Structures are given as C-alpha cells and as structure tokens.
Amino acid sequence: MPLVDRRFLPNVPPDSPANQRRFNAYFEDHRKATRWLQKALELWMLTCGLKREDNWVPLLIAEMQLSWAKSRTDESPGTADDWLRRVLDPNRPG
Fold first, then answer.
1. Residue 22, Cβ neighbours under 10 Å: how many?
2. pLDDT in tens, 39-55
C-alpha cells in the first residue's frame, strides 16, 4: 500500500474545522522535527569544531574536490561497462 499524504481528511473540505485542526497539528509536528534537526546539526557542527559564524562552505567544497580527485585515481575493477571503456579508449592511462 503506497504512503499517502494525510495532512487532510479525505472527503472533507480543506477549510473544515476538523481539517484545520489536523493541519495545524501536522504543521506543529513538522516544526518540532525541524527544530530537532537544526539542534542535531548544530551539535554535530560544534563536535567537528565548526561554529555557526564560521564560513565553512569552502571546506565542504575542498572536501568534495578531494573526494572527486581520489575517486578518479582509484582504479577499481568496476562493471563490465567500465572494463569495456578502458579497453576501447586508447587515451585512457592504465
């Protein structure tokens, strides 16, 4: 059975008092979950030595670039398609 969005009661107008109460409760739960996520991220950042005031976006970009460069130098066997590309591409090192 697929998951269905239950913010509103089916077969009831969205502006009915029951649906308004249901939506307000749903929205309040969403707000609480968002606050918990924010607190968890803030604690994780502090654990890693990052402060909210720090400009740490360049660190993430540098980490992504290093990860990309490492993945490009790692030659794992990969799939049959990877093997075929290595065989057919004469300019590829290795």
1. 17
2. 998 888 888 877 767 77
